[in-house]
Amino acid sequence: MPDCLGDHVTDLTATQRAALSSLAGAVCYPEDEGYAGLCAPWNQAVATRPLAVVGVTYADEVVRVVAFANVAQIPVAVQASGHGAFVPVDDAILIVTRALDEITIHAEERWARVGAGVRWQAVLDAAAPFGLAALAGSSPSVGVVGYTTGGGHGPLARTLGLASDRVRAFDVVTGDGVLRRATASQEPDLFWGLRGGKGALGIVTAIEFDLLPIPTIHGGGLWFDGADARAVLRAWATWCPGLPAEATTSVALMQIPDMPGVPPPIAGRMTVAVRFAWTGDPAAGEAALAPMRAVAPLLIDGVAVMPYVALGMIHMDPVDPLPAFEGHALLSSFPAEAADALVAAAGPGSGSPQVVTEIRQLGGAVAVEPAVPSAFARRDAAYSLFTVGIGVPPVVEAVEAHAAAVRSALGSWTGKGGLPNFSPGVDQVRFMRAFPADVHVRLASVARTYDPNGILVGGRGLR
Ligand SMILES: Cc1cc2nc3c(=O)[nH]c(=O)nc-3n(C[C@H](O)[C@H](O)[C@H](O)COP(=O)(O)OP(=O)(O)OC[C@H]3O[C@@H](n4cnc5c(N)ncnc54)[C@H](O)[C@@H]3O)c2cc1C
How many angstroms separate the CA atoms of 187 and 372, rounded? Predict the structure, then answer.
């Protein structure tokens, strides 16, 4: 399959610029005043400097820009919030979907249709008055489409499954510049690949997915002093495998800077957060959580019955843009010995530069293949390791080296590959991490059909 990315164009010609500018309302070039603001990703560690940035307002504009890119043989990338920004897209046209902001809640039939620029909190807010819930992730400021096309593992995933397993339909402009509708019965290969394959096959313009009747949950975070890290992590490691299907949990070593808005007990020091979400009877949830509450004195007890719309309170992820460097691995188990190894590598006294060192329990509903299979392939992993540190020089070098050291410390328990959403990048290494060989081969085959000229940056690792 050809790959127009090989050409590495460094600027558009005057003729190309004139043609592109006629195709959409907001087209900016590097010297334009609006360029930096339109390109700016949430992850400030990534320098996003495309040949041109196009802020689209209609699906037809995406069609026109992708068709233009096919003729001009210029790669096309896509960005909503920039939480998953990965590499400089300096040889591509960047389509920014922010203004595709439709949100329609079909309350009676319990489903939603949202535009590709919508972030999760807006969906949670729109669905809440009907007592309905959408399967958002730990941070509701993340974009719906980027998250869902990568699988989407949220704070209730063990109970309710992945966001991608609840998708009904995509409107998508495929790499050949055609606007298509992908459902289980219409363009089934595309529907398979868009659920897990992220931006490899097309630029989604709208997505439709199930809503669930969950007005409240029992959830939040228990915050302990870092000095109790070993006891808390050991207890969590032995406690969570016995939890019933109503529970989803994760644990994280946190070093949140002392900034405005951060509660004083957890600011500027190492803490341990046990995150818990429970969809059943709250009294039963309290009983299930009791062993963890008793492990050590609490700095903050944030677990209570809460409205679903406040889902973001469980992880308390940062909302404002920041420079982040992420590290990730999947684990096949996380016994008490692994907890000890993690505390030695990233706990008190380790010199860890990470802001977050997290273990999520996977399994439960995540492990169940949906009725309509998808390209999401890592259902057998038991836990996810995820690190986040400051991603700017000179700190980033220490952050990256330390993240590798943490993965190495957990090497005895490491499983295969990585989750698509926690493996940013589009090179072949990223694809090999996110997909086993058979899925990789099928995705490449579907890409040959829908992106015959290799226009999409998101499919680079398939070519
Ligand atoms: C603070 C934080 C918390 C997170 N929590 C979770 C979590 O709990 N669970 C989880 O699974 N992930 C989580 N993630 C990862 C997140 O889901 C991915 O980074 C996701 O790609 C972000 O999507 P976005 O649209 O916001 O970002 P963007 O950077 O705008 O997009 C990232 C990628 O998504 C794809 N994409 C975006 N828009 C489109 C489109 N219209 N059509 C096709 N492809 C598109 C493209 O491949 C694009 O490169 C988290 C990330 C951060 C930074």
Answer: 13
Ligand 1 atom with the smallest distance to the CA of 100 is 41
Secondary structure of residue 305 in the 3-state scheme: strand
Q: CB of 322 closer than 6 A to ligand 1? A: no
Q: Is the pLDDT at 427 greater than 90, yes or no?
A: no
- Residue given tokens 């329609």 in the structure block: 104
Q: Which fold has domain 103-213+425-462?
A: 3.30.465
> For residue 264, how far is its CA from the centre of ligand 1 (angstroms)?
30
Say if domain 4-96 classifies as CATH 3.30.43.10: yes
Tell me if 198 CB under 6 Å of ligand 1: yes
Burial zone of 184 (CB within 10 Å; 0-12 exposed, 13-18 middle, 19+ buried) = middle
From the CA of 203, give the closest atom in ligand 1.
42
Residue nearest to atom 4 of ligand 1 (CA): 139
Ligand 1 contacts CB of residue 444 (under 6 A)? no
What is the helix, strand, coil percentage profile of the chain, to 5?
35, 25, 40
What's the per-residue H, E or C state across 155-191?
CCHHHHCCHHHHEEEEEEEECCCCEEEECCCCCHHHH
Using most ligand atoms within 8 A of CB, pick from 93, 114, 198 the residue to mutate for ligand 1.
198
236 alpha carbon – ligand 1 mean position (Å): 28
Q: Is the CB of 149 under 6 A from ligand 1?
A: yes
Ligand 1 centroid from CA 170, angstroms: 16
Delimit the domains of the chain by residue range.
Answer: 4-96, 103-213+425-462, 216-422
Q: Indicate if the pLDDT at residue 463 is higher than 80.
A: yes
- Topology of domain 216-422 in CATH is Vanillyl-alcohol Oxidase; Chain A, domain 3 (3.40.462)
* Encoded tokens for 34: 């609006």
pLDDT tens digit sequence for 174-213: 999 999 999 999 999 999 999 999 999 999 999 999 999 9
Cα(354)–Cα(332) distance, integer angstroms: 23
Using DSSP bridges, classify how beta strands 76-79 and 93-96 pair: parallel, antiparallel or unpaired. Answer: parallel
Common-topology check for domains 4-96 and 103-213+425-462 = no
Predicted structure pTM score: 0.97
343-380 pLDDT tens trace:
999 999 999 999 999 999 999 999 999 999 999 999 99
> Is the C-beta atom of 138 inside 6 A of ligand 1?
yes
